[in-house]
Amino acid sequence: MLPVLAGALLLQSCNDKDEFYTTADGLTYKIYEKDESGEYENKGKVSPDDTTGAKIGQVVTMQMSYKNAEDSLLFDSREQNQPIMIPVMEPTFKGSLENALMMMSPGDSGVFKVNADSLFAKTFGQPLPPFIKPGSQLTFFIKAEKIQSKEAAIADQQKMFEQQMKEAQARAEKQIKIDDDKIQQYIKAEGLSNMQKTESGVYYTVKEPGKGPQANAGDQVSVHYKLSFLDGKQVESSYDNPMSGGQPFTFTLGQGQVIKGWDEAIQKLKEGSKATLLVPSPLAYGEQDRGPDMPANSILRFDVELVKVNKQ
User: Fold this and answer.
1) Residue partners of 36: CB distance under 8 A and separation at least 6
2) CB 7 within 8 Å of CB 83
3) Which ranges of the chain would DSSP assign to H, the alpha helix?
4) String of b and e for 253-290 (b: at least 16 CB within 10 Å)?
5) C-alpha distance across the termini of the chain, in Å
6) Cα–Cα–Cα angle for 43, 72, 83, nearest 5°?
7) SS3 call for 88
8) Residue-wise pLDDT tens digits, 128-175
9) Residue 37, SS3?
10) In angstroms, rounded to a whole number, what is the distance separating the alpha carbons of residues 91 and 94?
11) How far apart are CA 94 and CA 99, in angstroms?
């Protein structure tokens, strides 16, 4: 995995004289700006005395992608659905990416060719990956959205995080309603009885009541479990997990060490209890796609045994 510098937006120029230029330090570039009609045009050669670009100590909010010499896309910030903020620092070598940022003004888009050997050795401090040829160049496509002071960038970043949290919460509230309908259909189809529902939306039924102490937040608990999807496919089991030697999973309850559905539902049980939990995806792994074994928005079934409650 290459170090992530920032995000990408590839732009085309309408300028017939769409050519590359090279600085005295060896940085090859094309920089575009919008004309009065809103079209992008090549700015041409940037003077070494031009001081309109980003300055050391400022932060550039940008979209970026970059490719190797074989035109293979190595990174694209659009896949992260958000721009990336990069502080402008002293150039690490002549013709560096820092030099490129200092040539750009807010709203500019640019294409830059940077020596891969120098970039990895002097900027990233890493050996050249095998999929990048020695002596080759990486091509960066950059769209500078904002150039700000560090303080202004931090304030913007906080606003962005808050907005992302609100949007994620809204999606979770919508998803949990969808999951609740599916869980109710599953309960009916499977003939599960005595199902109860927690405040957040986990369905559970106690198959064998325990006689030990009640589990509460802050207690250290040990839980055996079998995890499966609603279609019956078993995902994993603590009983035959070679990593744990078949031992129950131990954690501190109510401290965010496990999924929200467990933190809430395990507190409904006493030591020795055996129960079935049906956990809607926002209380499990949510929108996270963990590959074919755990797709995004997966509703999970846990058949659990609360083996031990150590009161704290």
Assistant:
1) none
2) yes
3) 97-101, 116-118, 150-190, 260-265
4) bbeeebbbbbbbbbbbbebbbbbbbbbbbbbbbbeeee
5) 42
6) 55
7) coil
8) 999 999 999 999 999 999 999 999 999 999 998 999 899 999 999 999
9) coil
10) 7
11) 8
CA distance 63 to 10: 9
Does pTM top 0.70 for this prediction? no
- CA distances 94 to 118, 128, 142, 186, Å, are 9, 18, 19, 63
Sign of the Cα torsion 226, 230, 232, 233 reads negative
Question: Around 141, how many Cα atoms within 13 Å sit in the side-chain half-sphere?
Answer: 17
Tokens coding 76: 């694209």
| Contact predicate 64/6, CB 8 Å | yes
Amino acid identity of residue 93, one-letter, is F
Enumerate the H helices of 191-287 as residue ranges: 260-265
Question: Reduced to 3 states, what is the DSSP secondary structure of residue 216?
Answer: coil
Those residues of the chain that have pLDDT short of 70 are 1-17
The Cα–Cα gap between 16 and 38 comes to: 16
In angstroms, the CA 141 to CA 110 distance is: 6
- DSSP-derived pairing of the beta strands 196-197 and 203-208: antiparallel
C-alpha–C-alpha distance, residues 58 and 60, integer Å: 7
Question: How many Å apart are CA 27 and CA 113, to the nearest integer?
Answer: 6
**Each residue of 72-84: b (16+ CB within 10 Å) or e?**
eeebbbeeeeebb
